[in-house]
Amino acid sequence: MAGTLPAAGPAAAAGAQRVTVDLAASEGPVMLGANGTLYGLSDDGVPSDAMLAPLKITSISQKPEGGAQHPNGDALTVSSSFFRNGGGEINVMMQDIYSKWPYEDLGIEDYLPKVDKIVSEVAADPNSERFVYIPFNEPDQIWYNLGTSDQAQYEVNRDRFLKDWKTVYQRIRAIDPDARIAGPNESGYHTRLLTDFLAFAKRENVLPQIMTWHELDSSSLKNFQGNHDNYRSIERDLGIAPLKINIDEYANRRDLSVPGQLAQWVSMFERNKVYANQAYWDAAGNLDGNVVRSNIPNGGWWFFRWYAGLTGNTVKVTPPQANTVDTLQGLASYDRKRRQAQVLLGGSAGDADVVVQNVSRSAFGRTVTATVAEAAWSGYEGQHATPRVLTRTKVKVAADGTVTVPLRGMHKMSAYRIALTPGGSGTPSAASVPWSASYEAEDAAITDGRVYTQGTVSNANGYAASGTKDVGSLNTATSKVDFTVDVPAAGTYDLAILYGNQSGTPATQQLSIDGRAATTVSYPSTENWTYRAKKDVTVDLPAGRHVLTLAKGDAEVTLDRVDLTARTSAVPSASYEATFADISGRPSFDYSSSAGVGTGALVLRPGDKAVFDAYAPRDGYYTVVPRSSAPVRLELHGQKVTAVPGKALRLYLVAGNNRVAMTAKGASVHSLDVSGNGSTSGTLAYEGASATLAGGARLVDSVHASARSYIGWLGNSASSTAEFTVDAPRPGRYMLVIHYAHNDRRDNGHSYNTDIMSRTADITVGTAAAPKVTFKNTWSWDDYWTLGVPVDLKAGANKVTFGNAGAWAPNIDRIELGRVVG
Q1: What is the C-alpha separation between 546 and 484, in angstroms, rounded?
Q2: For residue 191, what is the enclosing H or E element?
Q3: Does pLDDT of 3 surpass 80?
Q4: At CA 654, angle to CA 698 and CA 806, rounded to 5?
Q5: pLDDT value at position 11?
Q6: Residue 313: its pLDDT value, please?
Q7: Cα 132 → chain centroid
Q8: Which of 453, 456, 511 is nearest to 482 (CA)?
Q9: How far, in Å, CA of 297 to CA of 278, rounded?
Q10: Which site among 272, 641, 724, 743 is 20 to 30 Å from 364 CA-CA?
Q11: What is the DSSP annotation of 646-714?
Q12: 423: Cβ–Cβ under 8 A, 6 or more apart, which residues?
């Protein structure tokens, strides 16, 4: 939740940590190398295009097509969605063709035919030049035991590995002469092997084009810089030109999804201009813990969205402590052409002063607008709205060319973005930061429950928990947690509950205030009891002290923390600055005025485009207002509409992220403002019972479905279909929102991955071709999620048919349709 951040200025607080950013000390172009993932994609559409495109992901690692290690995440299958959303390259983890972990050691003669198949398929792909082959995975542990301390045994094992490396390398090149090959891909950094490996590979002409190893321990935050520098020294000693580096597995469970932890990892990789992919500890398809469901951002996603927004060159950042575990770290960029500087930092609680040096007056003028925002930890499965702006202030550049931005009351698990833009004339609107407070469950009064410790430095692969602790075993009739809260004024408060639901079905607790009549809080399922999600509810409280009680309902729920935030408006709103939108063409930046959001304006001309990422807490209609000097053209869900300056549009947004593109014949654009709660007024709704079912599809009773029944046994035959007749009042582009559930899994016996699977359905609207739509696993058969699909309807009756001739489709609870322009 938001801390208290006073206006930017030169005053330093006693005891505040100091971070310096030198805009004159360039480290080279922003590379965005550290945003990669291992098994971050599971299927085409999981995660959604709207979650992939904004991140500008440079590399991912996936298994070969048909690999038996996991049930999904095949490299060629996910390549379509990855490449169409601006993705860079795909590492093919070749040994994931095997089913067991560690891989079955059946000898090189068993492996080579598999190599032939993998390479032949990849080489035949139209985008073959964008794939990288990784022939071996963690050979220091698997197959070769290269980490042994027995030097004689090491040399025997090493020689076997080097022989096999050469054999496989040459086999790959025989099939794909232009192949890029990466390795040796150890589980950690080992000087001994890398020295021997590089010497051998150079001598035998089998050098990898990309050097890979893993950094998978908290100590990497301390040791990586030394590892990197040592590796470069080995290259120099052997006369090898610097190879591209990809740390193709990094971070632990306690780091993933946590903005403050991710800031530490990403800063050291970007500083050294290496590529890096987050590790795959849980389920495929969520960008390693940064995407909720398929299309909803959490705090980690917003951090990577900020990272993707860095432009120009990175510049030197000096943290309070370099190369130290769990400390305040950061990275920064300076784009002289755009006249923007950005600083991303996190990893520490308390206060800090960020001193930005060499702020050029020729670029920024005598004043700058300093905008500070926070991306908080919302859990792996917890939704996070657009990061809240904490301060927006106009600051004079000091005589020595510095600007000091104070951060007060930072949260250890949060990341922060500081944006500096020229001040211009006028005064930016002050940020509105509501009162908020957080309460840890372990510090509350606990009845018949138990405090557990989760992810820590010594247990880095434990799941993240606020304060490293949570309260579980709330499994008796008398189990409850009493939170004593103190609010400053009477009013409505948003209550965010960080929880885990291990019951395999929606679970409930009873929420009461000061012992009064309880209301039921329903919690969707989570992957497990430590895979944190977030439930948002509202409470009305008089001023003063109160006891909020969460007592056991119909199943067991684990509690981590609750956050109370004063609701200052009945309608949530967010302003998306045009100067930080994704752009194409050659728009210009106008900082003549800092009024409003304070970061100036983007000037669009023919051929220019700006794309905004607009968050919606639920499916429905929102008010969208462009703050521009002239009409602009918006495109959303494939629908184009002209927007008049300052005039509200009613547009249908899907839950999570929505990419809104803007063009203009000529307009100066300050922001795109979005407000609303997701109104369903004017939408069409049809329960599963209204569909015509055929070929074995049938209604199934369920207390969890909206009308107590859902369509099950759908698909797995060409004749098994569900046909809805929808009555559209007007023709046009609609969003079809499907409420669905399924829990397909295939346990591959892996020791730590949860091998969930997706289902698909072919959706036919009228006589149009039926697109195949992918539905992510919902963690249980009784949890209904939504997925939005744009469709074109004619006025009057339209047939919307669901089917899947070759496999089971998801269970369908109901559908809704909303015209994109309402």
Answers
A1: 6
A2: helix 191-203
A3: no
A4: 35
A5: 52
A6: 98
A7: 24
A8: 511
A9: 17
A10: 272
A11: T--EEEEE-SEEEEEEEE-SSEEEEEEEEEEEEE-TT-EEEEGGGSEEETT-EEEE-TTSTTSEEEES-
A12: 364, 365, 366, 367, 368, 369, 394, 395, 591, 594
How far apart are the C-alpha atoms of 736 and 787, rounded to whole Å? 8
Q: Report the C-alpha gap between 35 and 267 in whole angstroms.
A: 11
pLDDT level of residue 678 (50, 70, 90 thresholds): very high
Residue 752 has pLDDT above 90, yes or no: no
Q: How far apart are CA 145 and CA 298, in angstroms?
A: 39
DSSP letters, 476-515, are STT-EEEEEEEESSSEEEEEEEEEEE-SSS-EEEEEEETT
User: What is the rounded CA–CA span in Å between residue 407 and residue 354?
Assistant: 7
**Reduced to 3 states, what is the DSSP secondary structure of residue 112?**
helix
Q: Quote the tokens at residue 746.
A: 């295939």
Strand-strand pairing, 667-679 and 573-577: antiparallel
Which residues are within 8 A (CB) of 233 and not within 5 positions of it... i.e. 6 or more apart?
A: none
483-502 core/surface letters (b: 16 or more CB in 10 A; e: else): bebebeeebebbbbbbbbbb
Report the interhelical angle of 220-238 vs 191-203 (nearest 10°).
30
Stretch 801-807: mean pLDDT, rounded?
Answer: 98
Q: Which of 179-183, 206-210, 316-320, 745-749 has the lowest mean pLDDT?
A: 745-749
pTM across the whole model: 0.97
- Taking alpha carbons only, the member of 82, 54, 85 closest to residue 580 is 54
Q: Is the pLDDT of residue 12 over 80?
A: no
Collapsed DSSP state (helix, strand, coil) of residue 783? coil
Q: How confident is the model at residue 748 (pLDDT cuts 50, 70, 90)?
A: confident
pLDDT digits (tens, 9 = 90+) for 483-497: 999 999 999 999 999
Which residue in 437, 414, 524, 548 sits closest to 489, CA to CA? 437
Q: Are strands 415-422 and 649-653 parallel, antiparallel or unpaired?
A: unpaired
Return the residue matching tokens 């992919």.
277
Distance CA 309, CA 88 (A): 16
Q: Which residues, including other chains, have CB under 8 Å from residue 443's CB and lie 6 or more apart? A: none
- pLDDT given for residue 449 in this prediction: 98
> What's the mean per-residue pLDDT of the chain?
96
Torsion-angle region of 165 (φ positive above 0: left; ψ -120 to 50: alpha; else: beta): alpha
Interatomic CA distance for residues 634 and 618, integer angstroms: 21
Q: Which residues pair with 774 in a beta bridge?
A: 760
